[in-house]
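New here. Your pick:
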Amino acid sequence: MNKRQQTALKAAYRQQPPALGIVALQHLPSGRMLLEASRNAPGVLNRHRFELKLGTHRNRALLADWRRDGEAGFRCEIIDTVKVPDDPAFDADAELASLLALHREQLQEQGQRFY
């Protein structure tokens, strides 16, 4: 790959909007889970990991589990994404909120506990 192709690929990557979606951090030993909807799912997942590693995460129970079991005790993933249509009237926040509620409801029916 030459320099021009590499520059074009980087530019195309930068122009892509971040993925909208639902992020889950699950403590494997206890099974508890943190669910969050975000307009930038990869970014929020990185933020959670960074705050946990730094020891400054807002959720104290989650942070305590992280300190006790470390990164190996967690599964961190994007569990669902939203495909943004070309419709200018599309309400991404409402779509994310309903998707989060749907996932939370389904998981609660399965006995999932949350932070």
Observations:
- The chain has a mean pLDDT of 94.
